[in-house]
Amino acid sequence: MTADQRSLTCESGHCFDIAKQGYVNLAVANSKASSLRSDDLDMVTSRQRFLATGAFDPIVDAVASRIPRDRTGNNGRLFVELGAGTAAYLAAALDRNDDAHGIAIDLSIPATIRAARSHVRTTAIVSDSWAPLPLADDTVDAVLVAFAPRNLAEIARVLRPGGRLVLASAKPAHIQELRDEYELLGIATKNTDRVSVPAEQVGMAIVEVAEVQFEMDLEPEQVADLILMGPNAWHVDRDALRTRVMLQKASRKVSASVGLWVLERR
Ligand SMILES: C[S@@+](CC[C@H](N)C(=O)[O-])C[C@H]1O[C@@H](n2cnc3c(N)ncnc32)[C@H](O)[C@@H]1O
Fold first, then answer.
1. In three state form, how does the secondary structure of 117-129 look?
2. Ligand 1 centroid vs 126 CA: distance in angstroms?
3. Measured by CB atoms within 10 angstroms of the end CB, which terminus of the chain is less buried, N or C?
């Protein structure tokens, strides 16, 4: 792709406008995106507010710290976050690595608008993670995916040999207290158990499996945002749930349980 101030042009001559909010929309070009469900403005607002409280910082730090620092002195490493939401994980990784630039990819326009503002070295693209990624082969140094869809074959294609994928996914016990009290969606075990076989098949090797577990002390607004920033938002009456949560005046303990996988492209 080449870029001027207002558009990007691909090798085949297709031109994509850069929106005034600073993102580029490639979803029409690369997917059947209209049939997929991405986060809406309320969900993104809840996510940004919740992450800003620092309650998920142990997860953000665990992901960002698993990208090795550059020891070659080369400038211009590229990190990509898929299903980036507000791109908080990518921003933390860029804060730790002055040499790197980031691309945040998400199918949601409201999320991508936030992602475009998340870090001075981040570019944000609306695109479908299940479609071919708008990235050349062997060009990416690290891919981050937190609580979002991932297509290992595409990730392996764009990573450089030796490049890293850091994957964070909720374990079945994640926020169990809220799941019980508010009858929330369960965690599909396929989210967490199906990494190793496809990884082998696409030429990636698992170099670390870890778990981040900690207890959060959450105010009612944080509880409501935590529930309504994810897929539960599609299955509940949002106003009724927020009202019910806010009736509980005191803070409460909620446990986080997140699996981490670090894979390297061979
Ligand atoms: C649970 S949120 C996680 C966001 C972010 N990674 C975080 O943890 O803060 C899942 C994100 O994946 C995005 N998403 C869902 N389906 C997608 C797809 N097919 N391609 C790209 N993004 C997608 C949603 O819009 C949403 O922003």
1. CCCCCEEEEECCC
2. 11
3. C
Q: How many domains does the chain have?
A: 1
The answer as to whether 60 is a domain residue is yes
pLDDT at 265: 97
- Domain range for 29: 22-172+186-215+256-265
Ligand 1 cavity residues, CB under 6 Å: 36, 38-39, 47, 83-86, 88, 106-108, 111, 128-130, 146-149, 230
In a domain, 225, yes or no: no
Share of the chain above pLDDT 70, in %: 91
**Can you say how many angstroms the Cα of residue 88 is from the centroid of all Cα atoms in its chain?**
8
Strands (E), 26-148: 77-82, 100-106, 122-126, 140-146
CATH number of the domain at 110, please: 3.40.50.150
Ligand 1 atom closest to residue 130's alpha carbon, by position in its atom list: 19
Q: Cα of 73 to ligand 1 centre, how many Å?
A: 33
pLDDT in tens, 99-147: 999 999 999 999 999 999 999 999 999 999 999 999 999 999 999 999 9
